[in-house]
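Homework help board

Subject: predicted structure for assignment chain

Our instructor gave us this sequence and asked us to write out the predicted structure in token form, then describe one feature. I got the tokens but I'm not sure how to describe them. Can anyone check?
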Amino acid sequence: MFEAANDSNSISKQTEVIHQSTALYNYQRHAVSAERAFAQVKIARISMVGIVFAGCALFYVTILFFRRQQRQKKEMVRELLSSLNSSRRSLRQLEEECELLKHRQDVLSEKKKAEIARLKDVISEHEQRWQSISDEKREAAVLDSQLVRHLRKYAGGNKRMAPPTVSDWNELRDMFKHELPMAYAIMGGKETELTHNEQCVMILHLLKFSTNEIAILLDCSPQRVSNIKTQINIKLFGQKSASTLDNNIKRALKELCKKV
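My token output:
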């Protein structure tokens, strides 16, 4: 019985040891689980703090970006308004300048019209007086005009005289047309068929310039002048020769005088 009691006591101790070991194991396991849960909670808290911080940072950056956008928009609107006002001021200035120029132009136009009217009256008066002068005196006046004298001096070799310009030729043609209409009428309205050089040669020939003088004025050879006279004779009188041009001109003048 003593041995049985000892065995029972031993078994009881072993059972208690087992229970203690089991309790210790369970405690350790619960402690590990608690530590893991605490670590997870700590990580969750850190993550939450990180998320909150990131959210706050994002919110702050968003606010800064929004304010920057607002400032840029305000600056753009301010610049647009400034540019618009500047353009409107420029427009008003241009409109005022246009009105001023228009007024000045109207005044200038009226002055020019008055000058034109006055010149027309003067020309009309001079033309009436000119018509009362004989053809011989009118021809002598044209031959003694400043332009013809200038051309004759240049053709005579006076190097101080400037060569004739396009304006000079136009003035000579107009003077010949208006002051010597009988001589101009020899062309019979065919002046449009004559080239510029042919018109110049014809007028200079009628103004008694020699072939050499005409060649100097037109800056060409005397032979070229003779060829041009031939072309004039063909176009105006239908004769292929320069030698008969003078006789044809005289005959045409007599016929015109008879008609008058």
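Reply (TA_rk): Your tokens look well-formed. For the description, you could write something like this. The mean pLDDT is 81. That's the kind of observation they're looking for.
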